[in-house]
Amino acid sequence: MNHRDTLRGQVLVMAAVAMVGLIGMVALIIDGGHAWAQQRDSQNGSDATSEAGALVLVGSLSGGTVPNDGDVLTQVTASAAANGVQFEAAYYTDIAGTMLRSDGSAASGESDAARVGDGVVPPCSSCAANRAAGVRAVTSKSFATFFAQIIGFPTMRTQTTATAVAGYVTNPCTNVEGCPLVPVTVPVTVVTCDGQNKANPSSTRYIKYVHYVIPLCQQSPGNVGWIDWEPPSGGTSELAAEIANPKGRYVTIPEWYAVAETGNVNAAQVEDALNLYAGETILIPMFDSTCNVDPPGPTVLACPPANVGGNGQNQWYHFPQIGAFRLDTPRGAWINGNNSAVCAGSGSTSCLTGIFVDFTMEGEVGSTPPGGTSTSTYYGIQLVH
Q1: 197 and 123 within one domain
Q2: Within this chain, do residues 109 and 158 fall inside the same structural domain, yes or no?
Q3: How many domains would you assign to the chain?
Q4: Helices (H), the chain
Q5: How would you class 30 by CB atoms within 10 Å of its CB: exposed for 0-12, middle for 13-18, buried for 19 or more?
Q6: Which pLDDT value is given to residue 256?
């Protein structure tokens, strides 16, 4: 072998080594970016999974349904599956996100924390209703690589955690006596009335600190509805009484609720009751779908396709959030008679006017209601870490 052949062999070896390094760099760039995207998806899944567990725990507030461990497990595993991640484990926490042991004391780590699925929701002396207030979820996601499989890494795996807690919102409004939850529901998106006084929805969501004229289209489930908290009874007198003197209703979000009247309840007593809060903030459940039968589950998909929407009264509305709506002063409700001048641009002769100052479900939450009472009707779910 001559010297030239030796050099040629050395070049081939160097080229092969360089090619391996080049493939490794390409794998790092492409598969690294892919891994980062998968990590983000996994984190979103962990967030949603922990929030699903916290939504079950919020049922222990203000006399609501006492949660059990099986319900929490069902919701967190279902949420993980729906978000395309693998459920690894979930643990109970207090209102600050600290994991709890089964006896309610602070855990030192996951190894001695009370796991969701072990059968018991642990007590918590610092939490509302003396029960665990949050859920720490651990999820993972495995995915195939592109170039990294050439160098021996056909798959990669990412693991993420998230903690969500449920409690009373600590500062939901400026009213001295707190914000009342009124039996009125509006859509999550802006709506107008058409020439036949039917709802004409849009895909534009309401946002905070923008002045809105919310129309009341007649006999249409696409905009304002009047909630019957105690069906099958109802009617204008009951509606006005509930608005003027709310009974501290408990609302689970997301969930379906019966709405006995849709559209324009053209009554002076209802208008007067709403205007008791002129210049103040009221809490309004907001809906994203309607159903003309009682859906069997809390999700939008629980309504059979043939029953979505519908016309007239006795609808079921799906509430994914609550809006804190500050009514105009000296009047924010214009629902008695023809108010076309005030409601101009909405396509209706009746309307509510004001601004949204906040929306649930995200927000700062605490272990006790504002003012230290148990009559608060404003609850929140917060991701803490």
Answers
A1: no
A2: yes
A3: 2
A4: 3-57, 69-82, 236-244, 268-275
A5: middle
A6: 84
